[in-house]
Write a structure and sequence with these properties.
The protein is α/β, with parallel strands linked by helices. Helices cover 43% and strands 14% of the residues. It is an enzyme of class 2 (transferase).
Length: 395
């Protein structure tokens, strides 16, 4: 009605007024010297968020899916083998993309709700004496199940197998919300999008590429035109773009980085933990269960929550939308009908989060869920009020 209700889906996320104002701009000439001049600082800022000193930062006018395609098509050849585990809708979609690109995809099937199986990856890599596996693909934060995987453990497993495969990581729903350590984890390609932790509109994927992965592009034979790293690096190096850039998003990214650095990345991560923990306390108070199998897997950007047996999670999210004009995430894939998701990433504070918890609680009460009205909100309030601190004041 007033066009101001927050959304609680795990991306696209709420776009703060400050970023909306910046992106509401007259268009600029991308062939002007001013455009080229903004790129180095922009990419330096992005490097800080990925936690990398010298990875190339490459953007395309595309959503995260385009980033997957760019990662694969610039570094691999038809028939190459890649190793990937399926534990949710997004790892599933990346598998599908690889298969459609003619790659030989070795899949480790895992329960939805579990995370990247570092030990199974290591075992498989150890057995691959001929180094047929060219890349290990990992979804850092599985948005369908609310599971964050341990990328450091995957890297340690790869190192223990002394295997040269590239490590590609989808951090679409984790970057700029949860810690990411591109250099420390030895990541070769990491992919994200503008519309999650960066709090921007959808339409730009952002890819970080290691020097090792850049080398692979010289021999990689999968076709690429729109997503060519070569074309993009050459054009950016000359202060331009190989085609029309998403200029408003680039200015938005510049401002988003300012916001993140003003708050401080550590505080950004702490805020996301607090938001998430409040939600988890509420889930517990409702007597419901998260899809994530164990606490070490809990995501700080999204919680996927099973509804009690006999209830339909789609009816719940639909009712919240119809009755209260608030969006929550539906259950995806295997979780459809069985779970709903609360997105808690991006431009959110404790107070906004409480409004989301109050809303879904009302929706559950309306549909006769066996919960006590106010119990989840009270649990979250209790957590928020006893842990409010510096990070919140700056948010
Ligand atoms: N990977 C993850 C983990 C995601 O959450 C998403 C989208 O939600 C994607 C990839 C695909 O990104 P997009 O929808 O921007 O193409």
């Amino acid at each position: 009605m007033f066009d101001q209700n927050p959304i609680f889906i795990p991306g696209p996320t709420n776009v703060p007024d400050r970023l909306r104002r910046v992106m509401d701009m007259q268009t600029r000439d991308h062939r002007s010297p001013a455009f080229g001049a903004m790129l180095p600082e922009l990419f330096d800022g992005v490097r800080k968020v990925f936690n990398t000193k010298d990875a190339a930062i490459i953007t395309f006018p595309a959503s995260g899916t385009g980033g997957w395609e760019a990662a694969v098509s610039n570094t691999l050849s038809p028939g190459d083998t890649v190793l990937i585990a399926r534990y949710g809708m997004f790892s599933h979609r990346w598998i599908d993309l690889c298969q459609r690109h003619g790659l030989n995809v070795e899949i480790i099937e895992c329960a939805w709700g579990s995370g990247a199986p570092a030990d199974l990856f290591a075992e498989r890599l150890k057995a691959d004496k001929g180094h047929e596996i060219k890349a290990v693909l990992v979804t850092h934060n599985e948005t369908a199940t609310g599971v964050r995987s341990d990328i450091g453990a995957v890297r340690r497993g790869m190192d223990s197998a002394d295997h040269p495969a590239m490590l590609m990581v989808d951090c679409v729903s984790s970057l700029a919300s949860m810690p990411f350590d591109f250099d420390g984890w030895g990541v070769d390609v990491a992919i994200t999008g503008s519309q999650k932790g960066f709090m921007l509109f959808t339409g730009m994927c952002i890819v970080a590429v290691s020097q090792k992965a850049l080398e692979h592009r010289k021999t990689a034979k999968l076709p690429r035109t729109f997503f060519s790293f070569d074309d993009m690096l050459a054009a950016n190096g000359a202060g331009g773009y190989p085609y029309t850039p998403p200029i408003q998003l680039m200015f938005g990214l510049q401002e988003s980085l300012k916001m993140l650095f003003e708050e401080g990345l550590e505080n950004v991560y702490a805020r996301h933990f607090r938001l998430a923990e409040g939600v988890r306390r509420a889930v517990d108070a409702w007597g419901l269960r998260l899809c994530a199998e164990s606490a070490d897997l809990y995501s700080d950007t999204v919680s996927a929550i099973y509804v009690p047996k006999g209830f339909d999670s789609n009816a719940l999210t639909q009712h919240a939308y119809d009755a209260y004009d608030i969006s929550f995430g539906v259950g995806l894939g295997e979780m459809n009908g069985r779970a709903f998701r609360i997105g808690h990433l991006g431009a959110l504070t404790d107070v906004t989060m409480l409004s989301g918890l109050a809303t879904i609680e009302m929706a559950m009460a309306d549909l006769d869920y066996p919960i006590e009205l106010g119990s989840g909100v009270a649990a979250a309030q209790q957590f928020y009020r006893t842990t409010a601190g510096a990070s919140l004041a700056k948010a």
